[in-house]
Structures are given as C-alpha cells and as structure tokens.
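Input protein
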Amino acid sequence: MLLATLSNFGIGANQRDLSRALNSSTENVGAMLNLLEANDFVRRTRNGHDKRFKTLAISEKGYAALDEATEMAAKLEKKILAGIDPTELRVAEKVLAQVQLNLANIAELTS
C-alpha cells in the first residue's frame, strides 16, 4: 500500500505526505519506510530546498515489487468477484462507501 501511494505522488514526496495520504502516524510510516529502505525498495535523499526533509523515491526493485503486487491483486480481485453482477457490485460498493463514511463520522464524534 505504501509503495502504491508513493508511486501516485511521483517525484518529491516526503514522509509527512505519505502519512497524510495513508491516514497514519509519521512514526508508523517512518517504520515502514525504514524496512523498505533497508531492503532497497525505496531511497531517501535530502530535499534540496529544505534540508530538514528527505525526498522519497521508489527504486527499480521497488517498482518491480509494486508491479508484481499489482498483478497479483488484479488476479485475486478477479477470482473474488467472479459471478457477481457488475450492477450489484456497484450497489455494494456504494453501500460500503456510505458505511465507511458513517464510521468516520462516528469516530469524529467520539474523539
């Protein structure tokens, strides 16, 4: 998920950007980035404009892993959704999106 989100940002993303996009703490995202960097899936470089920030980039190995994961996810999705009418699927997606919104609203009220 983190690699896919980072790929959507393109060049120039930083840890704070990813944290916001993933709705996760900078600490959690930092821990994930540490693992990805240690395994050569991402690179961190100093931001030329602001030395406090590091710019993130997906490595070739990271893109290869992302491509493989995307392909696997597409195959799995096809199997999971086999036999479901496309119209019914759209209705289910709409219902689940509303449930997600309702849960987010409840969470805001309780925090």
